[in-house]
Amino acid sequence: MKSLPLAPYHLFTYRSNHYVFDIETSAVLKLDAAAHAALALRLTGASAEAIAAQLARDYGETTAKNVLRELRWLEQRGLFRAPVRTYDDAENEAYIQQLVRMGTNKIELYLAEACNLRCRYCYVNANDALNHGLMPWEVARQAIDFVFARAGNADSVNITFFGGEPLLNKPVLKRAIAYSQQVGAEQGKTVGYAMTTNATLLDDDIIDLIKRYNFGLMISLDGPQETHDAMRPFADGRGSFETATRNIKRLMARRRAVTVRCTLSNRDLDRPKIVQFLEDFGFTRVAMSRCTGTVDGLGPYDIGPEENAVLRAQDDFFAERLFEQLARGERIKFNPWANVVQSIHDQQNRRMRCGVGRGCTTVGIDGRLYPCHRYVGMDKYVLGHVTTGIDQAAFTDYLRGYFSTKRKCETCWAINLCGGYCPWYVSGNDGAFAEPEDWWCDEIRQWYEMGIWMYDTLRSDYPDYWRQLVGEESAEPLLR
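RESULT FIELD:
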């Protein structure tokens, strides 16, 4: 391990609530004003005697003694200690080799390097991954054999159908399901499926398969017609909203739970309007992503610092909305803090933020393997082929490049919560990795501060829902 040039803890105040985040242990505590003042004085280098004297003047002798006794008790249990440590280069290299050798029971089949839509913000436009056609059956079969072999002794295999638009390749999708079911039966493994689709090609046959095999399903729809059609036209320029929503209603008539993913561009930042529309439409869960650009720069539809300031101002609205829905006993369809609440509770030291190159391994139509679906078409990031498997040297170089961007994290109090930025985001088109911009790291830190407050508020005021999010049978302790 190596020491970091960081204070041992991060103090902040949100909505008049004081919190401390212990960087070494990822523990979070809610503080009263006196404890907050004591820890703030410690960060200035004040002596124990000076802190005690100041607390006594401001809060009284009894409070000062109680606060200092509690802080000593916490210190004895490992909190607030310098230096903060992280993994050194040798430990990171050992971890990289572990990831390279790791098996996985998941695969993504990029069934179509083609799409019937021309979404204006689509990252694939820069990857040249919409002009190569459909995956042949032989490649899909080889990909299925590859994931079963890579799954080893796992008792299940999971296959995600992606694109482009995967339903442009319905024949291969159907054969992939039939073949994987056959191989699964032969090997005693269950097979699960997931798919992301724009819904314009959904039909009864596909809905039958979705229901029969209980697909994990993500529908792409960007909100009301004017918002959706402005960003997601067909290739001939026509809006896709009417076709997509007609098919989604057909799906909803036969499947109770349907999740939507909205992609937010800088052309419409009215999240309250968009979320309300998607909930009213009948989706049971609403997810939202943003057009972020990459380290190569922001595109014409991407969200930058100015737009993020607008969206941040909406967070309080959504927080109050969430609390009001919980107070009324409503089912929660949109909670942008769900994942961050879980990660705060788990107190994990996150070294990788996703399953890139493992659970996210994606097969292009020619059989080439990519770290995830976002890399398809980027020749600099090919990690092997379904017929020969993962190229361990290429995968090692890829991970080393990504870990080089995480040196910036060593000056950040959220290093253990965040785990570094999306690998694709920091991957340049030229094959080189670069650190994320300061403004985006600032956004992440502010998001985690609000997430800590949300964790605390849900735990104290809505414990049943909190337990549902974090998977705890008991609501103790308040904050760990």
